[in-house]
């Protein structure tokens, strides 16, 4: 896990490391996601592209990009509601450019919160900082 530039308590760092360790046993780990940073209301994750992430045209599969976006926004939702379960209820993905190699970075941010719903936005960029995907998602608190 890489850390953000902000000071973080030892307890907070340990909790994030435990969360990332547990996530490696899930689809997060199967996909190859890595935590880059996490702060209240925002997070960044990365994915080193592998051949199995590509489609038959030799570019990253749209489903991989959507999953990366959903994982990053889902992490922000989990951190915003640590004592509750949250689920994705809507995901809008706008594919802007393609990529076929390197490391992708997805940054997600909480932009609105109501009593039961969280609204987030996310961006995926390639090694050169080129914007590949922009998306938004809604997450529902299911206590």
TrEMBL record:
Keywords linked to the UniProt accession: Hydrolase
The keyword Repeat is annotated on this UniProt entry: no
Limits of the Thioesterase domain: 58-131
Transmembrane segments: none
InterPro entries: Acyl-CoA_thioesterase_PaaI, HotDog_dom_sf, PAAI_dom, Thioestr_dom
Signal peptide as annotated in the record: none
Name of the featured protein: Hotdog fold thioesterase
Organism: Paenibacillus glycinis
Lineage: Bacteria, Bacillati, Bacillota, Bacilli, Bacillales
């Amino acid at each position: 896990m890489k850390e953000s530039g902000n000071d973080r308590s030892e307890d907070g760092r340990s909790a994030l490391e435990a969360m990332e360790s547990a996530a490696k046993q899930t689809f997060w780990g199967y996909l190859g996601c890595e935590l880059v940073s996490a702060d209240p209301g925002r997070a960044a994750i990365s994915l080193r592209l592998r051949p199995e992430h590509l489609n038959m045209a030799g570019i990253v599969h749209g489903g991989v990009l959507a999953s990366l976006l959903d994982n990053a926004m889902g992490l922000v939702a989990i951190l915003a509601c640590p004592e509750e379960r949250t689920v994705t209820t809507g995901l809008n993905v706008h594919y802007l450019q393609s990529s076929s190699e390197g490391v992708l970075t997805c940054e997600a941010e909480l932009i609105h919160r109501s009593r039961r719903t969280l609204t987030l936005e996310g961006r995926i960029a390639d090694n050169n900082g080129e914007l590949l995907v922009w998306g938004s998602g809604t997450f529902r608190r299911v206590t």
